[in-house]
Design a protein that fits this description.
InterPro entries: LiaF_TM (IPR054331). The protein is α/β, with parallel strands linked by helices and about 250 residues long. The chain has helices at about 1-30, 45-60, 65-80, 90-110, 115-120; strands at about 130, 135-140, 145-150, 155-160, 165-170, 175-185, 190-195, 200-205, 210-215, 225-235, 240-245. The two termini are about 30 Å apart.
Length: about 250
């Protein structure tokens, strides 16, 4: 079942995150000891690669954000180590665009990794798509997507935004117990509209990004503690908004 899979991935993600933090902490400690450690170990490129690896392991290397981050970080890290006779800074955005483009093409040809590719191909700008599926797998890359979920047994899923945005409307959906929705926002945003009686718990890691709860307090008086939407994932230079309407 998807909840069991999400729980397993969540535990694995925490373990990987802990190991990465230990490695970073150990490296910083060694640096403070004035040992001869290459400067690139502490560069922004390496940080980008580490974050990309963490995202990849956490999501079983599904989706594209991890690939784009590792590609960009790897190219510029190679330039620093090999001392290329170029100003690599001016190549950042072209490389970013190429990496994301390659990722988008790869995902469109792999239905297992991107089950909603047919929606992405139909309208690259904005669309109002209704789905009665119990799980979702959405990706938005340099595009906007509006999706309405009507399942009365919604079990969660995945939403990935890279330089794009998703408006996810769950007002007509229903849940039983706790369901997990994995959200990744990198230079992008995600707006999630949920019924006023749902309990929403947030466990999203943010780096120069944020998660904002915009549900009016007046609508939260009828919260059902047996209906819990758990938001997991990462927000890097992006934003996630949670809303409810009467």
């Amino acid at each position: 079942m998807i909840n069991d899979d999400l729980i397993a991935k969540r535990k694995r993600g925490r373990s990987i995150g802990g190991i990465i933090l230990i490695l970073i902490g150990t490296s910083l400690l060694l640096q403070r000891l004035d040992l001869d450690i290459p400067s690139w170990i502490f560069s922004w490129q390496m940080i980008l690669i580490v974050i990309g690896l963490a995202l990849g392991f956490k999501h079983n290397f599904r989706g594209g954000p991890w690939f784009a981050m590792i590609t960009v970080g790897g190219i510029f890290l190679a330039g620093e180590i090999m001392h290329w006779p170029y100003n690599t800074a001016k190549f950042i955005w072209p490389v970013v665009l190429i990496a994301i483009g390659v990722t988008a093409l790869f995902k469109r040809h792999n239905e297992h990794m991107f089950s909603d590719a047919r929606y992405f191909a139909k309208d690259r700008t904005s669309s109002d798509i209704s789905s009665d599926m119990d799980t979702i797998n959405i990706s938005s890359c340099f595009s906007g997507l509006e999706k309405v979920v009507t399942s009365k047994n919604f079990k969660g899923g995945y939403v990935s935004n890279v330089f794009g945005g998703t408006d996810l409307n769950l007002m007509q959906a229903d849940i039983n117990g706790t369901v997990t929705l994995e959200v990744t926002a990198i230079f992008g945003g995600c707006e999630i509209v949920v019924p006023a009686n749902w309990t929403v718990k947030v466990d999203i890691s943010t780096i120069m990004g944020g998660v904002e709860e915009k549900r009016p307090a007046a609508l939260l008086g009828s919260i059902d503690k047996d209906k819990v939407l758990l938001l997991k994932g990462s927000c890097i230079f992006g934003g996630v908004e949670i809303k409810s309407f009467a």
